[in-house]
Amino acid sequence: MTRRILRWLPFFLALLAGGTRVPAATFDDIQPILQSRCVLCHAGEAAPLGLRLTNLDDLLKGSKVRPVVVSGDPSGSELIRRLKGISLPRMPMTGPPFLSDAEIALFERWIAEGLQPGSRPSSSTVETQPLQHPAAGQPVTYAHVAPIFAMRCAKCHSRYGLMGSAPEGFLLISYETALDHGERARIVPGSAGASELVRRIRGQSLPQMPYDGPPYLSEVEIQLIVDWIDQGARDAQGRPASSPVGSRLRLQGMLGEGWTLDSLPLVVGPGSRIDKSSGVGDYVEVRGRLGADGRVMVERIRRR
Question: Which residue has the higher pLDDT, 236 or 45?
C-alpha cells in the first residue's frame, strides 16, 4: 500500500499545483547536499563501512553491509532512516544541525521517483571539502573538530560500529557523548594534556588511535583538537563546556621529575599509591580524579 501511494505521489503533487507537472527529482538535485554535508566522511578508502557518496554509482552500490537506497521505497531505504535518526547514529555525524526537513524530503522524493540520474554522468565525482579552521581571532568549536571524529573515530566509537559496541563505551558521535564523563572523562576542557583523547591520538597512551592507523591523524588535525580542548571544548555555537570536576581520569605517559607526566603536573599525596617502584623515566599509567583547581589528583601510579 505504501509503495502504491508513493508511486502516485508525483501525480497528486501535480494536481495540487494546478495541473502543472512537477519535474522529477534527480541526482543533480541531491548532489550539492552530498557535497556539503556527506562526502567529508563518505569518500576514499576510509569511508565508513565502505559507503562512498562521491558519485551516483557509489551511492547505488551502497555499503559493505547493504544497499542504502531502494528505488520507490524511501521508508525502507537506510539512507533515509539515517538522515531522520530512525537508525543510529543519525547522519550526518557532524550534526546537529542535521539536514532540514526540506532537504530530507528531497532525498525521499528522489528515491520515490526511481533514483533518476540527472544530466551529469553517473560517475561524476563530488568534490570533498578541506578541513575547516576558524577565522582569525575566532575560537575553535565542535563544528571544526566534528568532521575529524566522524571521519576517523566514529566508525568504531559508535553504538553499532565496526567493532560492535563502542570500545569502553566511549561514543564520538556527538558533542554530548564526546564530553560525557560518566565512567571517566576522556576530554578535560581547558587541559589537552589531561585529556585521554589527546594522549591516544598522540600515541602517549596506548594503543594509539585511530585503531586502524597508520596513517594516524596529521599534526594539523591533532593541533586543531588540542586547540579546541585548551580553549574550553566549545560546542558548535561557541559555548565553553563545564569542567568535569571530580571525574575519574586514566592517563599514560612518561613519568618525569617532580611528579609530572610528559610535563603535565600531577598532585601526589599521602593517599596516592605508587606501584612497582615506578620512577622517573618509566612509562606509567596514572589513575586519579580531576581536582577543583583543574589538576590531576593521583590515586595510583603503576609502571606499564
Answer: 236
Among 175, 197, 230, the domain-final residue is 230
| Whole-structure pTM value | 0.72
Would you say residue 48 lies in a domain? Answer: yes
Q: Under a CB-based contact definition with an 8 Å cutoff, are residues 206 and 252 in contact?
A: yes
Domain limits at 42? 22-112
CA atoms of 295 and 290, how far apart (whole Å): 6
* pLDDT over threshold 50, residue 93: yes
The answer to whether residue 260 sits within a structural domain is yes
**Same structural domain for residues 211 and 149?**
yes
Helix (H/G/I), strand (E/B), else coil: 112: helix
177 and 171 Cβ atoms separated by less than 8 Å: yes
Using CA of residue 230, residue 291, residue 180, residue 288, what is the dihedral sign? Answer: positive
pLDDT class of 127 with cuts at 50, 70, 90 = low
Q: Is 279 exposed, middle or buried (0-12, 13-18, 19+ CB in 10 A)?
A: exposed
Q: In the chain, what's the furthest Cα-to-Cα distance?
A: 84
Beta strand 273-275 with 264-267 is: unpaired
